[in-house]
């Protein structure tokens, strides 16, 4: 698939490497509006990739898709222009800054008949795939709660807050694990130290009896990527910065007959801890290749319109809660 990547900043650097590493792509153009970053690209990318400044001049070329790695505030306009020219779109997360913009993008993709893929890359993560299989096979039992910490030191962004930047991954993962997340209750609080937007946020949700808590922060002394999923049968901890990644705890609560007839007691059960060997592959490359496969097979991406819209609706509802809690 012939593609043009747009944006070569912090993350665009990684995306370019994965495009080059994959046999499914022909990386034809890299568009970058900033001269310094363009020079970086000239120095770092192979000569086959043509480095250009204005992506619009190349939308009429024979590329089949665009890979958008600009700041989120610009991705909407670029995606709409690219789709108008019949190009498939891979865009960095979040899909857009608002639900309204997301809906316009989704409608445009449908109208033109192109694939729209949002890079919710954790959905393509091998550990998440392993957990999904456990949940689907009933190994965890009913999920009682999911608690996620995605905290690190910066970068402090100006166009979006920490929740839009970080929780988007976690919401997409929970959406994937639970076959669609549409919470009955949602609450969010945040604070804006060192930023014009919230730099530290907490998002809580309830769907049926399942509780979700997501902590997103750019102000933490250490990088933490920890997901705790507690099922009624087993519990798991996915620690993305540890070597072993996934710990499965055969621990929980046993319900046993009590001393009084007809009554029950709750006994804690502390069992084995299992660390499975999971064959590692790169989630970003998998996400890119899933996009290419969807183009070839003409199917909707797993992190395409349906999932992106559910994720954006949650994020927007959470943004309203954050706005309501602001002092200014
Ligand atoms: N999937 C992930 O895990 C992950 C991680 C980090 C960032 N991201 C996402 O990647 C995107 C980029 O983030 P970043 O940290 O690389 O930002 P960045 O500011 O470092 O880079 C964005 C680049 O896009 C360029 N750009 C902007 N408008 C352009 C245009 N019209 N034409 C050409 N180039 C243009 C800018 O000059 C800049 O170099 C964001 O959407 C962010 O949310 C995703």
Describe the model.
- With 328 residues, the protein is α/β, with parallel strands linked by helices.
- The protein has two domains: 2-114, Rossmann fold (3-Layer(aba) Sandwich), CATH 3.40.50; 123-284 and 313-324, Dihydrodipicolinate Reductase, domain 2 (2-Layer Sandwich), CATH 3.30.360.
- 34% of the residues lie in helices and 27% in strands.
- It is built from eight helices and 16 strands.
- The protein has helices at 10-21, 35-44, 72-84, 99-112, 126-136, 162-177, 283-297, 305-324; strands at residues 2-6, 26-31, 50-52, 65-68, 88-91, 116-118, 143-151, 185-191, 200-207, 210-217, 224-231, 235-239, 246-249, 252-257, 264-269, 273-274.
- An eight-stranded mixed beta sheet has the order 8-9-10-7-11-12-13-16, with helices on one face.
- Strand 9 and strand 10 form a beta hairpin.
- Helix 3 runs parallel beside helix 4, helix 4 packs antiparallel against helix 8 (305-324) and helix 6 (162-177) crosses helix 8.
- The longest helix has 20 residues, at 305-324.
- The chain is globular and about 80 Å long.
- The N and C termini lie far apart (48 Å).
- Bound molecules: nicotinamide-adenine-dinucleotide.
- Nicotinamide-adenine-dinucleotide binds at residues 6-12, 31-34, 37, 55, 69-72, 74, 92-93, 119, 121, 165.
Write a concise keyword list for the protein shown above.
328 residues; alpha/beta; Rossmann fold; Dihydrodipicolinate Reductase, domain 2; 8-stranded mixed beta sheet; 6-stranded parallel beta sheet; 16 strands; globular; binds nicotinamide-adenine-dinucleotide
